[in-house]
Amino acid sequence: MANEQTGATEADSAKKNDFFGHPRGLSTLFFTEFWERFSYYGMRALLVLFMAAAVTGDNPGLGFSDGRATAIYGLYTFFVYVLALPGGWVADKLWGQKKSVFVGGCIIALGHFTMAGPLMGFPDEISFYLGLVFIVIGTGLLKPNVSSMVGELYPEGGARRDAGFSIFYMGINFGAILGPTLCGILGEGYNWHWGFSLAGFGMLLGLISYKIGEKNLGDAGKLKVDDSDSVLSKRSRNFWITTAVSTTIIVLFSILMNTGVIGISLQQLAQTLGTSVALIAVIFFAYLINDSKWIGAVLLLAGAGYYIASFNWGYTLFSYQIGIGITVIAFLIINTVRMFMPSLKISLEKKRLFVIFWLFILAALFWSGFEQAGSSLNLFAERETDRTFGPYGLISQVGAFLPALILALPLGYLSWSIFKRDNLWWVGKAGVAGLSLLVVGFAYYVSTQLTTTWEMPASMLQNINPLFIVILAPVFGWFWTWLAARNANPSIPVKFGLGLLGLSAGFFVISWGAANATGPNSVAPAWLIVTYFLHTCGELCLSPVGLSSMTKLAPERLVSQMMGVWFVAAALGNLFAGLMAGQLETLAPSGLFWSVALLVGGGGIIALLAAPPVKRLMGDVE
Q: By the 8 A CB rule, do 222 and 96 touch?
């Protein structure tokens, strides 16, 4: 009887629409994702800065070179995205999304507190690497599955579901604004490990709100398989065996690499991993688009490219990369010709799969530039940007409390209006009040700092992009709708090209600013603000369209795999972003940013030129 009553209570909670007219379960997932993104972006803003900081001083770091620090950053963000694939499998086949999200959150919190290990006397570098591993595993379990549960709250689909995802997306960006702000002040300004600890406490708050509101999710996120208990037990056993073997191999490889038994650097590891994944992607699409014999042809082509390159550079990693590059370009050219040959009668399904491969390349190129935000642009903000503000006499005269009071009045009225509502979940009320207090407290902190001279932490500039996302996302949504009503909405390939051009424009701006630098901390923050504005415009042209295009273009039997392809594109982009940022060791910031601008801009121009024929391959997909 007790279980029946509990089930009835959960069902009643799940049916309530008291979160801005949406299911109460959306508020549960909103605050879970808010705090998870708080922890992720808060730690991410500190990551490269901590690794590159000197081992001496008031706030010592790890003292890594730029190349090593950015390579680790690239590997870390690469695996964050790649592990979303097995994380989704675990949820679908073993645990369900609900359990996967909670376990993932616990592992993420453990990772952040492990990175703060030196506060408790643990070795700095060991706890750092171990913490990163935990965060990667936990994010792989949590990130894809919390989004899946949002969709399950709206079985009817339609515009209401889209609106629910929009609200959820705001939670992501609010967390991305607050995380770098608070973790940056604490970690960069006082002690790096305090910043990592704050990220961990943020994840704990997300777990607490998740468990409190779990009943609001109803059946969303529960394991939905028809397999027998014996099949599930066998599958679980195989999963743990595979996990144990894989972990053992990775640990042994890491030990052998660190001890010099395996003569490969982190940069070389990242390069090998990136080019290998690119080759696997080509083989995968060769199999889908062509007959199985094409896999052998692709491997033969890659081998031939490697052999040809070896005449100039020997049998080196660089030759291997050249070989993969030749393979990708040849694959594109050959299949482009095949797609437009009427005599071959290529099916519409295979044409659309080829379009997905093309968008995959463009997306990887985009993220390789965009994700410079956490690496090269972050280092530029710390070393070259003038972040000193104040003293401002007006604030000293009127009192530091005045800016906080100006914000407190409207936020207090909003919180009071929400608190008076009887049909709103109490956790939602507490969340709004808590966020209002944080905003007011931050305004008071900044205004007190500005009564003297305040140096803004470099990591705080990481919140400009999510702030622009919150402001501009509704504008872009309205603009696309306005164009569609006039039959002028750009096609998917055109939007990808525009996204790359927006990203390129941002790098042209920052390369100009870097070229005008007269010494350390001499570049105005406005250069970075304009750069991030243009990057955000590019992101809003490409990123929201990307996932949608995967579902539109993929055959129904391959939708999940194509979603995985999108994650792999982001993973590759993040990995190459770290490697490109490592060139700061030998290249001036202006030269690096100019090179990225040319590379991405060239890709954008090619994307726009190729858009009309690519659109023909898509058929009636808009």
A: yes
